[in-house]
Amino acid sequence: MSASSLLRLSSTHAIARNIFSPSSHFHSRHRYHTQRTRSSTMSAKKTNESTSPATDLRKLKILMLHGYTQSGPHFRSKTRALEKALSKAFPPPPRTPHKPLPGSLPQFPGGVQLIYPTGPIKLRPADIPGFDASALQSAASEGGKGEEPDAWAWWKKSDAPDGLYEGLEEGLETVRQTIEEAGGVDGVIGFSQGAALAGLVASLLEPGRASAFPSSSAAPSFQFPPSWTTLIAALPQPQLKFAVSYSGFYAPHAAYAPFYEPKIATRFLHVIGSLDSVVQEERSEGFVERCADREGVLHPGGHFVPVGKDFAGVLVGFLRDVLSKQKREGSEDERLEDTNVPL
User: Fold this and answer.
1) Residue 203 phi, psi dihedral angles, 5° rounding
2) Residue limits of the Serine hydrolase domain (predicted)?
3) Helices then strands, each counted (H, E), the chain
4) How far is CA 193 from the centre of its chain?
5) How far apart are CA 17 and CA 40, in angstroms?
6) In the β-sheet with 242-246, what is the strand arrangement from edge to edge?
7) For 113-143, what is each residue's pLDDT tens digit?
8) 8 A C-beta contact, residue 105 and residue 323
9) Cα-Cα-Cα-Cα dihedral of 267, 268, 269, 273, to 10°?
């Protein structure tokens, strides 16, 4: 990753402002277990309404999508510091009558809720790069019980030369069910394969995206999932307010082009490791280029989610900027409606 494309955090005091510089070719204003979600039959409308008890106040719901070979609980353990930073930055109200706490979001008085689903595809040892399957075989031959890794994925890359993803439909359906059970979500954060999935999810929830997909199921096309059409119709505000990618990439096969053409319009933060040897540079940069409204940070590490104070601050700053801007725009829209003047 070239230094001219991304800014490196070089100071412990440099936080949310370390995004793509205006001179960077990435900068454009055309510019990641709830604690696990409970299954619920509540309607999306009811879930998003603010009511008086603190437990029922509307929350900022963020979908957290793990990487290949991880699980929801594992990803939560890796991002616990981010969870704490977000809860501190956007606190819920105390149980007693109160004034708004510093940093609280008026439109989300219930604070933040992180939702950590697990991918539907159970990985075998042979699916995991670098996994030593001989240890399992040795334990089995000695009469022991070799434990397979608790490793999951949203899809697997096909062994066939076409490069299509096996199980992508199942992975998308798992996410759709999670969003439905949560009564809708406001944003998504993903790591690696989960970050790539975050891009697909953000795209699917955008207005008019279905028209970019072919109506025919002839190979190698990928059709807009019908169950997502139903989900979008049921949600009061289906489009995500933001998306965050840590070590993400795009799906290069032509069948997946409708996810990116036109470009993803959802506000996107890309965090990329300068020493990442897992995701190829052209795949990560290609993902950035397929997002119209993007910002990003280069961290001086490899293929992981940076959770130190500086980079937690980057995430908090990004979310605060996105949500405060949307609140201002909403207020402007309300004032225009109140004026009753033909414009």
Assistant:
1) -65, -50
2) 58-311
3) 9, 10
4) 10
5) 39
6) 112-115, 60-65, 187-191, 242-246, 268-273, 294-299
7) 999 999 999 999 989 987 665 554 554 455 5
8) yes
9) -170
